[in-house]
What does this fold into?
Amino acid sequence: MKQMNILVIGDVIGQPGIRALVSMLPGLKKHYNPDFTIVNGENSADGFGITESLVHTILGAGADMITTGNHVWQQREIFPYLDSTDLVLRPANYPPGAPGKGFGIYEKKGVRFGVINLQGRTRMWPIDCPLRKAREILRKIESQTDIVLVDMHAESPEEKEALAWDLDGKVQGVFGTHTHIQTMDERILPKGTAFLTDLGATGPRNSIIGFDPETGIRRNLTQLPLKSEVSSNPAILCGIVLTLDRDTKAVTHIKRIREQSAV
It folds into this structure.
């Protein structure tokens, strides 16, 4: 059986996450030899959003494209760029009028990869239904793609699982982002869709979801809206590798990645 690999890296947080990605992604790609690489970059700009400069840094490190989430809107300078590129997605289920695109099709090594970026609604902004939006997009792209992958940026594990089960057999992979905590429930669902509730983050190890622990403690003690600052210590890089049959495009294996950066 001829195999192919897809590498997906979880939320990159601030400069520690960028340093880890730049220093580690080339080695990971050499080791796993992925046919396609996705990186979630929504926290790369000091923990909140992404800039055009950071887009080029992430792509230059070896990503084929970038997904995001709810924080993508916090760097307004990115808005015109989102409209001009297919290489950075924002969640597809924002209402009409939002900058950017929520899905893209990328051809590499003769394979057409479809990527859909969605956002949950539980304990988040009450935007359009991610399940209905996923179904709508799949109807548009199913004849144009060989493989479809979905980044579900959401708080709720139940909401992420509901999406994965609804799409089971219709896409090759559904992976959750946003909580920055890697889950250990990787599996292939009955009809063949690979799923992990959350990829985890590529961000500082000694932190509270990537941010300075002292600020997190004070916020919980006082309930004051204190601004989070990205912790400065070296990062953990988290993600997954999906292995597929190159001929049938069926997923045969899902493996979690969790590696400590030295920088």
User: Anything to note?
Assistant: The chain has one domain: 3-260. The chain has six helices and twelve strands. The radius of gyration is 17 Å. The mean pLDDT is 97.
